[in-house]
Amino acid sequence: MPTAIAVTSADLVLPAPDRHTPGAAVLHPPDVLDLEGALAETAALLERHGHLVVVVPPWLAPAAARRLRTVRAILETDRIAFLDIDLPPLGTALLVRQLRQLSVCDFSPGVIASAARLLSHYIYAGALLGTVAKLDRVPVGLKAHARSWAPSAQFAVLANPTPHLVKLGAAGARAGAHGGGGLPPGPEFVTHLTFARGQLASDWVTAELAPAWQVQGVMENPLPADSPAWWATGKLVEFAAAIPDPAVLYQLVASVRREECRWCGAELIGDRCGFCAAPLTASPPAAPTAHSASPARSVPPARSRSRL
Predict the structure, then answer these.
(1) From CA 75, how far away is CA 71, in angstroms rounded?
(2) What tens-digit pLDDT sequence spans the chain (308 residues)?
(3) What H or E segment, with its residue span, contains residue 252?
(4) Nearest 5 degrees, angle CA 235-CA 236-CA 242?
């Protein structure tokens, strides 16, 4: 069986693009499932799949995050990976779908877990907002804050991979408040665009952004429950563009040099293990002090490696 991909909310599981992409397990929070049930739930996933990769968003409630770590500690297993990639909710859901696509490939669980950081750099996640007055996820200038009070204000905001904010008007995009003017910069590779409507009535994403980004497909999905809190407003249309082709995803991950984690032995790509979070290389030794009995040995320079 493929490595299991798990999420903490059902709305982070987007429809499978094809019949080969497996679903994702939804781990229930403490107010839904007690500790005994959570242990049984996780143990069954490990029994069936061997390894479990859990996407743990930074906005997850502290009690739910503690429960996940408690379950792993009680099970005394090193076969559960927690991924704390910081993307907006819809972008997170797209990343989860990409991991689901890769889980049926011939990658080891360690490579799948550590590939999440690589894939996140290729997800363009943002939102059309009716106000940025309370937004703290991207830099917002004083002018943009002031313009948020206008009744018809709209802002195109890109949170990943590079923050960008544009004030939109009746005549189209105007000067950007961060990173230049015009539309938010789009991907220079083939993507599909996914969007979800909140309380903002606008076709800007499909009528203007999608053609400008030259996306190869557009799909609408329900808005994730955590999106209004993440964007600090319910007046939004969230969007995210990502690589849809599993063959391209496979080539992208396969092109990065694989290493073995010096701590847990898992296979990994990049500079950090997805299972134990240990860095690829050890921290440099502390500089010797006047009270040292003997000088610290120098560490030989590391071999050239591909980095994420």
Answers:
(1) 6
(2) 789 999 999 999 999 988 899 999 999 999 999 999 999 999 999 999 999 999 999 999 999 999 999 999 999 999 999 999 999 999 999 999 999 999 999 999 999 999 999 999 999 999 999 999 899 988 775 554 445 445 567 999 999 999 999 988 654 444 344 333 468 999 999 999 999 999 999 999 999 999 999 999 999 999 999 999 999 999 999 999 999 999 999 999 999 999 999 989 999 999 889 999 889 876 555 554 444 333 333 233 333 333 34
(3) helix 246-254
(4) 170
* DSSP 8-state secondary structure symbol assigned to residue 283: P
- Reported for 13-18, long-range contacts at CB under 8 A and 24+ positions apart, including other chains, are 13/93, 13/96, 13/97, 14/93, 14/94, 14/96, 14/97, 14/194, 14/221, 15/221, 16/97, 16/100, 17/97, 17/101, 17/244
Best CA proximity match to 80, nearest among 276, 300, 297:
276
Instruction: Give the angle 298-300-302 at the CA atoms, nearest 5°.
Output: 140
pTM beyond 0.90: the answer is no
Distance CA 27, CA 30 (A): 10
Q: Which residues contact 53 (CB under 8 A, 6 or more apart)?
A: 3, 4, 5, 6, 81, 83, 99, 103, 109, 112, 113, 116, 274
Alpha-carbon span 29 to 8, nearest angstrom: 7
The full 3-state SS of 152-198, as one line of letters, equals: CCEEEEEEECCCEEEEEECCEEEEEEECCCCCCCCCCCCCEEEEEEC
Residues in the chain: 308
Q: Is 219 exposed, middle or buried (0-12, 13-18, 19+ CB in 10 A)?
A: middle
The token duo for 293 is 């009995």
The secondary structure element, H or E, covering residue 110 is helix 109-120
